[in-house]
Amino acid sequence: MDALTPEAPSLQAVEWLVRLQAGDCAPEVEQAWRAWRASDAENEQAWQHIEACMARMRGLPGPLAHGTLARKPAHAQANAARRQSLKLLALLAVGGGAWLAGGDELARFWLADYRTGTGELRHIVLADGTRIALNTASSIDVRFDAGQRLVTLLKGEIMVSTARDAADRPFFVQTGQGRLQPVGTRFAVRVQGERTQLGVFEGAVDIFPGRSSEAARRLQAGQQAGFTADQVSAVQPLPAGADAWTAGMLVAHDMPLADFIGELARYRHGRLACDPAIGNLRVSGIYPLADTAQVLDMLTRTLPVDVRQTTRFWVTLTPHRPDTGRT
User: Fold this and answer.
1) What 3-state DSSP class applies to 172?
2) How far is CA 136 from CA 15, 68, 155, 221, in A?
3) pLDDT in tens, 58-106
4) Interatomic CA distance for residues 96 and 73, integer angstroms
5) What are phi and psi of 317, to 5 degrees?
6) Angle 176-182-188 (CA atoms, 0-180°, nearest 5)?
């Protein structure tokens, strides 16, 4: 694999490539590009890396490569093609071709219309006024047309507060397991492997599993349920504080420590684990997700546990040992 190039020159190289591919590229642009390459060795290295990425892309499947390397896209599609070029090539330029080894899931995440990194919380407003909060490591695509408003949750978790549409188009959220249709509502959707979890905070939401129309189910405010492509699980009440993550908090009510650590791990880079010997200890309280190290410290002060840190990115909670010197 090629060595990683610095992020700023790499992104500049992508921007130059998009400008050079534009149908209206003027000679002055090419002269400025050559001057940029000559001005710094890192710029030249970044451009060479882009050319290597382009060579790789010629061997990619058609749907991903088509239109991305075209010199002069049609005028009506030029802006969209240039934006897609920028997103895909930025991934390859900055990631050192990591997508080629990471598969379609990584590509979809980086090419999503909106996404968040690990530990990041983002609030967006769509064109119709719908508000969406994206939790840690989440990504969505948004497609509005004359017949519908569609949000596809590719990864992670979102909170949706739907707005009334002037054109009266239905609103849908799509996941790998099926489709959701809200009825004037506020609801959270989380993708967990082959399962989607829905929690309804206001209004109602209809669940349509992808492979079973007979399994369709409506959830009312205060209810939650998981579903696969074939069935909907038993409906349960929403726990208090289930939406606290939208304000950057994690609320626990007598939660097993193992489950608590599993949730907290979503907001940290690396591995965070819990020794099974202490997994049944109970956690209650409100914890700030922006500082997971502080949360771990709070746990050591309230529970008989220690934090064993092999490296910054490899942390395990273990039973407290008196000889550690903690009071």
Assistant:
1) strand
2) 28, 29, 10, 24
3) 555 544 444 344 444 444 444 555 555 555 555 554 454 444 444 456 6
4) 26
5) -85, 130
6) 60
Which element (helix H / strand E) includes 294? helix 292-302
Q: Which of 249, 252, 250, 299 is nearest to 278 (CA)?
A: 299
CA distance 71 to 81: 11
Q: 133, 121 in Cβ contact below 8 A?
A: yes
Helix (H) / strand (E) containing 203: strand 195-209
- What would the two tokens of residue 24 be? 């209206």
3-class SS of residue 155: strand
Q: What are phi and psi of 209, to 5 degrees?
A: -55, 145
The rounded distance, in Å, linking the Cα atoms of 250 and 283 is 11
SS3 (DSSP) at 271: strand
Distance CA 282, CA 311 (A): 26
C-alpha triplet 75, 77, 80: angle, nearest 5° = 130
Strand partners, 132: 124, 160
Looking at residue 188, its amino acid is A
114-127 mean pLDDT? 94
> What is the three-state SS of 140-157?
EEEEECCCCEEEEEEECE
- pTM (predicted TM-score): 0.71
